[in-house]
């Protein structure tokens, strides 16, 4: 059984590990940072194409609007991480980053698929929104998964290195 006194220490150590994670790594050279910056570039390109007049009815409006909103939200997440503001509330930022990135990725995937399915192409520019939204969904979801996996690995490594109390033998257990 886990001692109730160990739970706050575990949560506090997880918070410290996350704080170190956000302070030590260079955001723009990390895998998460590169994926987020690439997704911002793809969102911006899709938004520019949408504003330039590429459209095929409601599907393009959905994909274009998703790109504009996603670019704005991703720029905000990148700014918080690049300015090292995430170190002040590491657990909150970690969960916010994962949840928001996953929602944006799913939103872009759905809007891209709908744009591909219902777009009546009159020009070559009309087909640009769907594929760009699907590619961007992959980038954003990849960023969320990479962030989650790297933090979980740090937590696991820290738990492996921490000294554990020896387990009592079978005969010492109270029945």
Write the layout of secondary structure elements.
Blueprint lengths: L5 H19 L6 H21 L6 H25 L7 H29 L10 H33 L14
Helix pairs in contact: 1-5, 2-3, 2-5, 3-4, 4-5
Note down, in words, how this protein is organized:
This protein has five helices and no strands. With 175 residues, the chain is mostly helical. It has one domain (13-160). The longest helix is centred in the last third of the chain and has 33 residues, at 129-161. The protein is elongated and about 75 Å long. Mean pLDDT is 81; it is low at 1-8.
User: How much is the average pLDDT?
Assistant: 81
Tell me the structural class: mainly alpha
Order of SSEs:
HHHHH
How would a textbook summarize the main sheet?
A: none
Range of helix content: over 70%
Report how far apart the termini are: 14 Å
Number of domains: 1
Could you tell me the number of beta strands? Answer: 0
Low-pLDDT runs of 5+ residues are: 1-8
């Amino acid at each position: 059984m886990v001692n109730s006194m160990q739970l706050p220490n575990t949560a506090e150590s997880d918070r410290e590990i996350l704080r170190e994670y956000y302070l030590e790594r260079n955001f723009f050279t990390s895998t998460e940072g590169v994926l987020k910056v690439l997704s911002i570039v793809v969102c911006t390109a899709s938004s520019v194409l949408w504003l330039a007049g590429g459209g095929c009815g409601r599907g393009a409006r959905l994909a274009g609007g998703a790109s504009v909103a996603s670019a704005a939200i991703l720029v905000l997440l990148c700014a918080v991480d690049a300015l090292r503001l995430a170190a002040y509330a590491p657990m909150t930022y970690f969960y916010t980053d994962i949840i928001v990135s996953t929602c944006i990725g799913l939103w872009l995937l759905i809007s891209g698929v709908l744009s591909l399915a219902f777009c009546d192409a009159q020009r070559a520019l009309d087909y640009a929104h769907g594929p760009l939204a699907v590619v961007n969904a992959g980038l954003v979801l990849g960023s969320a998964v990479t962030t989650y996996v790297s933090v979980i690995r740090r937590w696991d490594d820290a738990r492996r290195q921490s000294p554990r109390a020896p387990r009592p033998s079978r005969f010492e257990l109270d029945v």
